[in-house]
Amino acid sequence: MGEWHDAAAADAVVEDEVVGCVVAGKPVALFRVEGQVHALYDQCSHGYAKLSDGFVEDGCVECPLHQGLVDILTGEPRSAPITEGVRSFPAREVNGRVEVEIE
Ligand code: FES
Q1: In sequence order, which residues have a C-beta less than 8 Å from that of residue 36 and are 6 or more positions away?
Q2: Is the CB of 80 under 6 A from ligand 1?
Q3: Domains in the chain, start-ordered, CATH in brackets?
Q4: H or E segment to which residue 21 belongs
């Protein structure tokens, strides 16, 4: 089990956008899909690009470097050239803040 860490104001994390932040020393990308907050490790598994610089579309984030797609809910790759998953972290909303669980 990890620890929950404060990440961002909940109202800064909105549908169809991505927020990059650092949580417990790790780069994290925050998303909101159908009202729920989600968190991924903020680096593409294909190269050194930040997913928080990408575009959100249909439940995926598109990497800004080679346009590979990653599923926001699972971190699984959804299109080439990404073949490996991106780490996903549990995320929740508490008192108007987004928290992310990281060990
Ligand atoms: Fe993300 Fe290549 S670095 S698709």
Answers
A1: none
A2: no
A3: 3-102 (2.102.10.10)
A4: strand 19-23
